[in-house]
Design a protein that fits this description.
Largest sheet of chain A: 6 strands, mixed
Helix content of chain A: under 10%
Oligomer: heterodimer
Largest interface: A-B, 24 and 26 residues
Structural class of chain A: mainly beta
Shape of chain B: globular
Helix content of chain B: under 10%
Number of strands of chain A: 11
Number of helices of chain A: 0
Strand content of chain B: over 45%
Number of strands of chain B: 10
Radius of gyration of chain B: 13 Å
Largest sheet of chain B: 6 strands, mixed
Order of helices and strands of chain A: EEEEEEEEEEE
């Protein structure tokens, strides 16, 4: 089963609105990462949050992590058409030297 | 090079044929990963190389799949006797150092088995 599960599976909003995506995971982690994928090709690393961090910002991105609930959220503020993509969370189970990806959230920004 | 490169970009093959997919990681990155992504799905881990350590092959779906990494740099993923269910995008990623940090992905190879 997947370590990370994103919610919702698909999200469609108007340009300028904020987009929030959630990720839940099952086991203890060292860090959680978010990636973006355009057009089904290579993924681009967005942000990494460590297990001892609760919130992290990068430009218009805000990531929160709640290890007690084993969940994370990615907030994209003031969305743009170029933000249209699939977004994946990925976690590293403690002791494992690899990432496990969720199924992704398909985000569509309507102009 | 500036990023991870993969070749070929697209590969169409007939069922039963062998295919080789190549990955050139970012120079100096010691960790290299292969993933498979079926249409509209998440990434499925296949294999992981770290430096000179034995690779983690736990994600390879069958013994038809194998991978090697020569000289700690370029990696080749080989699929023998391809099946239609092998059709997917095969993604390679590399990362620096020990521990699971940010991974840098190549553009992928889209494999279609007819």
């Amino acid at each position: 089963s997947q370590q990370g599960e994103e919610d919702p599976q698909a999200l469609s909003i108007q340009e300028g609105e904020n987009a929030t995506m959630n990720c839940s995971y099952k086991t203890s982690i060292n860090n959680l990462q978010w990636y973006r994928q355009n057009s089904g090709r290579g993924l681009v690393h967005l942000i990494l949050i460590r297990s001892n961090e609760r919130e992290k910002h990068s430009g218009r991105l805000r990531v929160t992590l709640d290890t007690s609930k084993k969940s994370s959220s990615l907030l994209i503020t003031a969305s743009r058409a170029a933000d249209t993509a699939s977004y994946f969370c990925a976690t590293d189970a403690q002791g494992a030297q690899k990432l496990v990806f969720g199924q992704g959230t398909r985000l569509t920004i309507n102009p | 090079g500036a990023g991870v490169s993969q070749s070929p970009s697209n590969k169409v093959t007939e069922k039963g044929k062998d295919v080789e997919l190549r990955c050139d990681p970012i120079s100096g990155h010691t960790a290299l990963y292969w993933y498979r992504q079926s249409l509209g799905q998440g990434l499925e881990f296949l294999i992981y190389f770290q430096g000179n350590s034995a690779p983690d092959k736990s994600g390879l779906p069958s013994d038809r799949f194998s991978a090697e990494r020569t000289g700690g740099s370029v990696s080749t993923l080989t699929i023998q006797r391809t099946q239609q269910e092998d059709s997917a995008v095969y993604l390679c990623a590399s990362s620096a150092g020990i521990g699971v940090g940010a991974q840098y992905f190549g553009p992928g190879t889209r494999l279609l088995v007819l």
